[in-house]
Amino acid sequence: MKKIFGSLLMAIAGGVIALAAYTLMDNRKENTNIITQDAKIPAYQTSMSGTYAPMVLPDFTEAASNTVHAVVHIKTEYQRKSSVYDYFFDFRDFFGERSPRGNTPILATGSGVIISPDGYIVTNNHVVTESNRVEVTLNDKRTYEAEIIGLDPSTDLALLKIDAKNLPFVVYGNSEQLQVGEWVLAVGNPFNLTSTVTAGIVSAKARNINILGSPDGSAIESFIQTDAAVNRGNSGGALVNTRGELVGINAAIASGTGYYAGYSFAIPVNIVRKVVEDLREFGTIQRGFMGVSIRELDSKLAEEQGISDIRGVYVAEVTENGSARSAGIRSGDIILSIEGVSVNSTSELLELVGQHRPGDKIKVAVKRNNKDLDFNVTLKNRDGETGPVRRDEVDINKVLGASFEPVSDELKSQLGIESGLQVTVLSDGKLRAAGVRQGFIITQIDGKRVASRQDLMNILNGKKGGVLVEGIYPNRTRAYYGFGM
């Protein structure tokens, strides 16, 4: 009996052990299944901590819908190609479909952005410069002939106007708040079909790619660099953020063939806004200048000048009678910020100053001998004046092919003259054709004294026939030149 009872206990114990072992194995199998299921979850849906957190992908639908109807197709017709951009490349080779060169009219295409419901459109200067006719096609296929309100080669921007009302338009954003790595959309209408949208990120800001070389050195190159695909005909189109706000106007691509090769470049909207306001109000650009020659501050320059902190932009020279010198800024100072915005490159500085007009006061922070100083600088135009420049003055400059500055008191004393207007930049025009060289000081025109640009304007405006110019060079050589108006 005892043997039977003992055997029964052993059987029960074995069963319990077997049941426990089975339960343990089953639990392990369940855990194994859980691990296997974990491994099947896509990596982008998991977080570093192991919790499940789906990645939020950007949604561009609202930005695209707010933009596509405000981007237009532009077709231009002109007789000869522009020479403005030949130094680096011809923009039309990259952004326009052109007819063969010759005596036949040249056709080029581009894009534009409607910025107001009454028909103002921003595009690139190189899209419409020298054109005889500009045709704009809206996204809904309506076509208009456009008037060129104004051009600004120094920023490669142009303002057009069509006779239409209640148009869709893009609102301005703020390019200073744009961050590297931020998503952006490039919107253009290159094929006269409907607007095309591509996406990318901001790759860099304040890029200078040396394509706007202007004769007077006034070009502002501070491009937004993106990897959004931009191709032929997209020039002048919109660069917008994910809210659909305009942050730039597409202008160029990095390519040797004219097709997208990884990077595109856009003009910051803060520059666009200022240029548009100038062209609408004055018909020409109101550029404010600090009157400084600047250099990038790098380790080599810092070592040469004994500078320990490599921040800011180095002031190599200050112009006599210029804004900076009048405010107290000296050669050797390091500009740290403009209006509280830090600057670490010449492109950044030019962009910030380029947002202001002559007569505007800007706060400039500099470092001098390891001391931080603040200056209030009143900007002046090229002629050393703080008032606005009229369009007819710009036309005279173009006709003469020159820019001018008042003669300093020191130079007047050295040369024994009472007044004069000095030729600081000389390009193709009547003065060069007459034999005038850069540096020439105009003292009289047709026997009338010249002391300022206004004197020049008063004498030459509406002038017909021959003009006699009298003056002197800084080496004391007196000269007389004649030309016809």
The largest sheet is:
7 strands, antiparallel
Structural class computed from helices and strand pairing: alpha+beta
DSSP helical segment count? 12
The domain count comes to: 4
Q: Rg, please? A: 33 Å
At the fold tier of CATH, the topology name of the largest domain is Thrombin, subunit H
Named CATH architecture of the largest domain = Beta Barrel
Average pLDDT figure: 81
Strand content: 25-35%
Strand order within the widest sheet? 5-4-1-2-3-7-6
CA distance, first residue to last residue = 140 Å
Q: How would you sum up the global shape?
A: globular
Share of helix, binned: 10-25%
- Low-confidence segments, given as residue ranges, are 1-6, 8-13, 16-22, 28-48, 81-101
Would you report the number of β strands? 25
- What is the level 1 CATH name of the largest domain? Mainly Beta
Commentary on this structure:
The protein has 485 residues and is an alpha+beta fold. It has 4 domains: 2-45; 58-283, Thrombin, subunit H (Beta Barrel), CATH 2.40.10; 292-378, PDZ domain (Pdz3 Domain), CATH 2.30.42.10; 393-484, PDZ domain (Pdz3 Domain). 24% of the residues lie in helices and 30% in strands. The protein has 12 helices and 25 strands. The protein has helices spanning 2-40, 61-65, 91-95, 125-128, 269-281, 299-305, 323-327, 346-353, 391-400, 409-415, 430-434, 453-460; strands spanning 71-78, 106-114, 120-123, 133-137, 143-145, 147-152, 157-161, 183-188, 196-207, 223-226, 238-241, 246-253, 264-268, 292-296, 313-318, 334-338, 341-342, 361-368, 371-378, 402-406, 421-426, 441-445, 448-449, 466-472, 478-484. The strands form 4 sheets. A 7-stranded antiparallel beta sheet has the order 5-4-1-2-3-7-6. The relative contact order is 0.08.
